[in-house]
Amino acid sequence: MDTNQPRWQRRKDARPAEIIEAALTLFVDKGFAATRLDDVATQAGVTKGTVYLYFANKEELFKAVVRETILPNIESGEHLLADHQGTWAELLWILLERWADRMEYSASTGISKLMIAEASNFPDLARFYVEEVVMRSRKLFATVIQRGIDAGEFRPVDPVMATRAVISPLMLIKVWKQSFSLCDTEPVDLKAFARFHYELMMQGLASR
Question: Domain 70-205 is classified in which CATH homologous superfamily?
Answer without folding.
Answer: Tetracycline Repressor, domain 2 (1.10.357.10)
